[in-house]
Amino acid sequence: MPLETGDPMTQPGDGATTAFVWSPDLPRYDFGPGHPMAPVRLSLTRDLVDALDLPGVREIGVAAVDDALLATVHEPAFIEAVRAGAQGVPDEARGLGNEENPLFAEIHVAARRIVGSTLAAARSVWTSQVPHAVSIAGGMHHAMPDRASGFCVYNDVAVAIRWLLDNGAERVAYVDLDAHHGDGVEQMFWNDPRVLTISVHESGTTLFPGTGFASDVGGPDAPGTAVNIALPARTGGAGWLRAVEAVVPPLLAEFAPDVLVSQHGADTHGDDQLTNLRVSVDHQLAAARLVRDLAREHAGDRWIATGGGGYTVVEVVPRVWAGLTAISAGVDIDPAAPLPPSWRARVEEELRVPAPEIWGDGGEGGGDFVPFAQGYDPDDAVDRAILATRNAVFPLNGIDPLY
User: Fold this and answer.
1) For 239-257, what is each residue's pLDDT tens digit?
2) What's the order of all strands across the beta sheet hosting 195-202?
């Protein structure tokens, strides 16, 4: 994977189909030892992508971001509070200096750098340098206009979407596959009919942030543009993928976005320490393939993908996000294929923990789900969640919820 040097706006290279945004400084977004969001997950993912030597993938740098750009979605007083946090001044009301978001000296610079990662991805796609771009450091979807939340200081996804709107995009769709509700992005575009936000997550009755129910459908000027699929705890991969397939494709077909932005939090996995879903790597990669194909069908093949949550930092996150990068470049990962020996050796030598051996979890490659169109089961809690969402938002978008 050749490294592109210089300005991140530079053409990624002849034949490139995917821009992979990277800087050695991205892992400096670090809340300290023992915090679940361990920055090694980023470097491990980048090393796995590099070991794959994927055709069509080019590495680009992080875009510069100033406070004025942050202020397109965040309140200036909050930005100043983050700057003060870098000097050790906590602000509990703004979510800074607590157990979730401990202060550290580079908190403002490091969080701003993540915004620059996703902004570089958005610019690369919107200016037609590449059809697809991946920002694995991005996906900080909980950050609010006036406060940090859920390990997220600045909302890189919202800044990128705002930049796309300000630079000519008429409709942007956002699909959030993290185990947690994408509440910050939803709130920032709650009443904007130009932005469709779809979040597939564990129900707020059992998981942070406690929001994102089927009845939450958008503001008075944008009814039906906020979509929430609140799944029961312990939902498995087949049910999760059934929910994604039942709701996302019809809405994207009707909304016809100019560009698709997605968040691929790997914390839906059954081994994740902070969530209660049971989604395998196989199913997460199957969802990435679905999103890629939907971008091609409904968004002019313009796709910006980000990381997000994911706290099984060695065994799960690198496989999901490196696999996402490969899929973005048109390389469909075989879940039964072995991982590169060089990457496994590096993990075991440097971290002294066993490395996963194959891409998947030994299942059916995510092909075991039954499409919702084949029938609704009223005794199934996942199907009830799917139908609740379809009943709430499909009519507002001119779609028959029972089609």
Assistant:
1) 999 999 999 999 999 999 9
2) 57-60, 18-21, 132-135, 303-306, 259-263, 172-176, 195-202, 226-231
